[in-house]
Amino acid sequence: QVLLVESGGGLVQAGGSLRLSCIVSPSIRSFKAMGWFRQAPGKQRELVARITSDGITNYADFVKGRFTISRDNAKDTVYLQMSSLNAEDTGNYLCNANAWRNDDYWGKGTLVTVSS
């Protein structure tokens, strides 16, 4: 069974940085694309960043220039490097995987709280 486990969330002050990780099992190579979504309190889930198996990335406008998504196939891991965090970035960050057969998988998320 596919399992996505996020880590790296926590409490950070405005202007700070965090690096989120999502470990994919059994293999990240099973998926045509990986993404990060977030859901803030009282708001709908929204796409933050996406990376395809070909390395093509796209970002939500509100994080472009601040966040970077990357993938390490050897470690079965996708990362989200976040900098210049602000209070609006607070939310549960969820790892998403799109399989070659169009199945969609989700992790449980890791909570990011930006103070101030």
Short characterization:
The protein has 116 residues and is mainly beta.
Structural class: mainly beta
Order of helices and strands: EEEEEEEEEEE
| Average pLDDT taken over every residue | 96
CA radius of gyration: 13 Å
Main sheet: strands, sense, barrel: 7 strands, mixed
Please count the helical segments: 0
Based on DSSP secondary structure assignment, what is the total number of beta strands?
11
Strand content: over 45%
Q: Separation of termini?
A: 40 Å
How much helicity do the residues have?
under 10%
Instruction: Give the overall shape.
Output: globular
Question: Are there runs of 5+ residues with pLDDT below 50, and where?
Answer: none
SSE blueprint and pairings:
Blueprint: E1 3-7, E2 10-13, E3 18-25, E4 31-39, E5 46-52, E6 57-59, E7 67-72, E8 77-82, E9 91-99, E10 104-106, E11 110-115
Parallel strand pairs: 2-11
Antiparallel strand pairs: 1-3, 3-8, 4-5, 4-9, 5-6, 7-8, 9-10, 9-11
Characteristics:
116 residues; seven-stranded mixed sheet
Structure, described:
The protein is mostly beta strands and 116 residues long. Helix content is 0%, strand content 57%. The chain has strands at 3-7, 10-13, 18-25, 31-39, 46-52, 57-59, 67-72, 77-82, 91-99, 104-106, 110-115. The strands form two sheets. Strands 2, 4, 5, 6, 9, 10 and 11 form a seven-stranded mixed sheet that branches. Strand 9 (91-99) and strand 10 form a beta hairpin.
